[in-house]
């Protein structure tokens, strides 16, 4: 199964490659929602309904749900189920382990939570990715080059081959898994490297975090990726916290629409 086909169809229909990060912090929820039975889910629900015409994917960073204990896991599951097949659901968990542990992680996110995609760390080797790749109808999204300054500490170390470590890692992964189910994380704060990697791995989709609050610029990312970008460009805080009052969903819609308008020129 080529997981790219339905994703590309959604992107062409919406003229968008927008991925919205539902990284919800309880302290930042609008006051009016805090009396709800499940305030985080109600926040997510209203954000989703307001932005679905512009978004092709939603990314849920599991840390913001795990820190809420059992209730957070329930909210995570409810949110993924609520989105359903209307957009791609990404569990941003950055899991990385081997053997039965990796199989358990794959089962948790792909079967129990039924997420469409999961972020993983590849630095324990290809065998740590295989249990996720064993689900052909799911996306495995491996860390390539991240947007944080600390990426220079390890990922950007130069090897004797002339490649940076992240380039060698991506090349190794691409040799073992095709673009129909493997995607790479590449940070929006590195547009020059993004363009180079797009040319080197033209058939692979990139999940691109870092636009907005982290300092990445949408226009630079779009220029780097070119027409019909094989990309999911993620924005979190700049959309979901565009407003803090009762009109928070409307403000999120306006912010998402602004990004989609800029993306539309590339489709």
State the separation between the terminal residues, measured CA to CA: 24 Å
Note the main sheet.
Answer: 8 strands, parallel, barrel
Which strand order do you get reading across the main beta sheet? 1-2-3-4-5-6-7-8
- The parts where pLDDT drops under 50 for at least 5 residues are none
Write down the overall mean pLDDT: 96
Indicate the overall shape.
globular
CATH top-level class: Alpha Beta
The tally of domains stands at: 1
Let me know the number of strands.
8
Q: Which radius of gyration do the C-alpha atoms yield?
A: 18 Å
Q: Helix fraction?
A: 40-55%
Helix/strand order, N-terminal first = HEHEHHEHEHEHEHEHEHH
Please explain how this structure is put together.
- The chain is α/β, with parallel strands linked by helices and 267 residues long.
- It has one domain (4-264): Aldolase class I (TIM Barrel, Alpha-Beta Barrel).
- The chain is built from eleven helices and eight strands.
- It has helices at residues 4-14, 39-51, 63-66, 70-83, 99-112, 126-133, 165-176, 191-200, 218-225, 237-240, 248-264; strands at residues 18-21, 55-61, 88-95, 117-120, 139-145, 182-186, 205-208, 231-235.
- It has an eight-stranded parallel β-barrel with strand order 1-2-3-4-5-6-7-8, surrounded by seven helices.
- Helix 5 runs parallel beside helix 6 (126-133) and helix 8 (191-200) packs parallel to helix 9.
- The two termini are 24 Å apart.
């Amino acid at each position: 199964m080529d997981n790219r086909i339905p994703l590309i169809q959604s992107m062409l229909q919406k003229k968008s490659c927008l991925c919205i990060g539902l990284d919800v912090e309880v302290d930042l929820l609008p006051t009016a929602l805090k009396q709800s039975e499940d305030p985080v889910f109600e926040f997510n629900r209203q954000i989703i309904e307001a932005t679905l015409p512009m978004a092709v994917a939603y990314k849920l960073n599991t840390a913001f749900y795990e820190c809420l204990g059992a209730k957070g896991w329930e909210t995570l599951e409810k949110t993924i189920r609520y989105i359903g097949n209307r957009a791609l659901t990404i569990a941003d968990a950055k899991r990385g382990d081997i053997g039965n542990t990796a199989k358990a992680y794959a089962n948790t996110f792909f079967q129990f939570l039924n997420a469409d995609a999961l972020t993983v760390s590849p630095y324990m080797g290809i065998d740590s990715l295989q249990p996720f790749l064993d689900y052909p109808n799911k996306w495995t999204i491996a860390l390539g080059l991240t947007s944080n300054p600390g990426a220079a500490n390890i990922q950007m170390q130069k090897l004797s081959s002339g490649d940076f470590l992240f380039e060698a890692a991506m090349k190794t992964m691409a040799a073992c898994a095709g673009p129909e189910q493997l995607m790479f994380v590449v940070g929006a704060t590195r547009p020059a490297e993004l363009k180079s990697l797009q040319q080197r791995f033209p058939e692979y989709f990139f999940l691109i975090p870092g636009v907005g609050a982290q300092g990445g610029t949408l226009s630079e990312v779009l220029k780097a990726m070119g027409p019909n970008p094989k990309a999911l460009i993620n924005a979190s805080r700049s959309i979901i916290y565009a407003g803090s009052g009762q009109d928070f969903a409307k403000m999120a819609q306006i912010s998402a629409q602004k990004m989609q308008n800029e993306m539309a020129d590339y489709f």
